[in-house]
Amino acid sequence: MLTRPTLPPLLMLVLSVAAGLLLGLGQAPMGVWLATIVGVALLTWLMIGLRGRTAFGWGTLAGLALNTLTISWVSVLGVWVAVALVAFMALWWGLLGLIVSRLVTLRGWAFLVPAAWVAIEFGAGSVPFGGFPWLRLGHTTVDQPMSGFLSLVGVTGVSYLVALVGVLGLWAATTPTVRIKSIAGIVALFVVGGLANLLPQKQPEQSVTVAMVQPNVNRAEKGSSSYARSVTNNALSETIFATALARTQGEKVDFVLWPENATDVDPVNDAETRRLVELSAAIAEVPIFVGAVTDGPKPDTRQTSSIWWDPQTGPTATYHKRNLVPFGEYIPFREQLLPVLPILRQVGRDSVPGEGSGVVEVATGEYGHLRVGTIICFELAYDDTVYDLIRDGAEVIVSQSNTNTYVGTFEPHQQLVLNRVRAMETGREVLASTLNSYSAVIDTHGRIVEQAEELDAATLIATVPLRYNVNLSVRLNPTISWLAVAATLLALGATIVRKRPDPR
User: What domain range includes position 219?
Assistant: First the structure.
């Protein structure tokens, strides 16, 4: 059974904050992945011997430190928005602390504590309003050997392995009798993960060439009547440049990719916006995959959409974003909250979620039936939304984002890491197109082949293969979350049963 000396409250406070900061240092843009592993070990050690309420309190403090460091970028929407989000998300780490304080009393604690981390990530990414699955241990592995496991067990399984390495390190430090075995286990995980990264990727014979347009915007115009038009005007200008560049380089482009919100007005219903898109497609002489804000199915609603715009036939296949940002794209309990919190009027029209996968079947060039899968911005964080692309036969994956609100913060860096994680999980190159920050071409090993810079108008022309593989991660990952939840609940039940007095 694990033990530790009793620590004074001030030292507990300092160490809890340190644990949270260490956990956060592994996230982008810091990327100090070893710090996260140490943070797992430290937080677990601090929970040893604590009562439930005390463990919850110190865990919450660690969560406050972690989330303040990593997601306080949401303060661009308002300081109180950041305070509310950071405080709420910290409660999940408080719950984790409580659970860990119970699990470390069991014999199999070294394997149960990582399951608790996965269970908490699953809960935080599901509740409430679809959750906020932005910070996961698996996201810290993109530049270390264990990233090789992403194609095998997905980000959920890799989160378990990161936590396992942390607790094995703690076990080695506190229990001399298992030190060699624990260290051997850690080394084995890094070696196997590194070897998995070396597995060759089959190179299909067919490929598509995509011109990715990063239009850039005049941020000073945001909120003005001219902003919506200027975004689309910039997309047109950059499309003209991309077309000229492709032709001078002898590149035969199959389609042009515009980012989310490249048209901030519905291009189907608004005549001026439609004219700009049609002109762009006519100049490019190939379809444009347009990121657009469209009018919703009900009055005074909207949708965030990806529209395949053919130069001859106009708008055809369309996908509407499924995972919406509460209080950013829609207001939960709108009628009750608006009178109390008038600042929420800045959200504007409520967005309506789409249905089905983000795969559109389209025609371009020599491909009469090309299956393009798109992920729109925040959807990157949701496993099922991404995996549905593979299940539905996406041959190429694009990621369309509007990062304008968060330029200069940690958010675009974290989003780029999510794109890298998804490329490794799915075994697909990811073409990440943003409005004005870090558009990138990412290969199946999560490496950035080419990247644009923030606040630059840019064009990236990429040729990527059409792929049909379904990685083990896509099949296995959803099951891992539920297994972790079940294991955690059963283990907690065991601690409760063990505490009951003998009826004899």
Answer: 207-327+354-468
